[in-house]
Amino acid sequence: GAGVSQSPSNKVTEKGKDVELRCDPISGHTALYWYRQRLGQGLEFLIYFQGNSAPDKSGLPSDRFSAERTGESVSTLTIQRTQQEDSAVYLCASSLEGGQVEQYFGPGTRLTVT
Amino acid sequence: QKEVEQDPGPLSVPEGAIVSLNCTYSNSAFQYFMWYRQYSRKGPELLMYTYSSGNKEDGRFTAQVDKSSKYISLFIRDSQPSDSATYLCAMKKPGNTPLVFGKGTRLSVIA
What we know:
The complex is a heterodimer of chains A (114) and B (111). Chain A is an all-beta fold. Helices cover 0% and strands 50% of the residues of chain A. Chain B has strands spanning 4-5, 11-14, 19-25, 32-38, 45-51, 54-58, 61-66, 71-76, 85-92, 100-101, 105-110. In chain B, strand 6 (54-58) and strand 7 form a beta hairpin. The radius of gyration of chain B is 13 Å and the shape is globular. The relative contact order of chain B is 0.34. The mean pLDDT of chain B is 94. The chains are: A mainly beta (114), B mainly beta (111). Chain A binds chain B through residues 4, 33, 35, 40-45, 48, 50, 55-56, 59, 91, 93, 98-99, 101-108, and chain B through 4, 6, 8, 32, 34, 36, 41-46, 49, 88, 90, 92, 94-104.
């Protein structure tokens, strides 16, 4: 079946602009996660959705970052007033239920802020 | 001190060599230990995971966890050029908790 998909695959934006990143999880997966991977760094957890609710937003780095999920399916991560330090690969993962070890990752969105 | 430490490498080995990849961690609450493989410009894929201590084998791959030393390893036997990738260790506490990743080790297997 189809895996996790993310769009766009690449995004170049000017400092100060807002960006929206999209994630389509595997159908039927109730849990969805966003991670950030900076160059030479491991993945940093950003936010976790169970259904359409976000019980854990502890990884969001600032109030410029927000995310939502609708229809227990697609999720969007929005970064307002982008800064150069926001440049990274943003990865989305989904799992059948929350708390499971097996998380399936999308290919990521490579964001470059100039 | 970061919760999970992993030497980023790069590590370069000849085809057929045995590869040893390692991570250390500081939080004794971690109970699940995972290894992900990430090819360039792709998302990570789960190779294998272990619950608590012990060994787990899957084909050419063996994962080991030593909770007393807070040290985990991944061994790759008979390494192949197709194993060239970044290997990320990850750990998790029980319940609805996030994965905590190491920085990843970049491996190149030379034919």
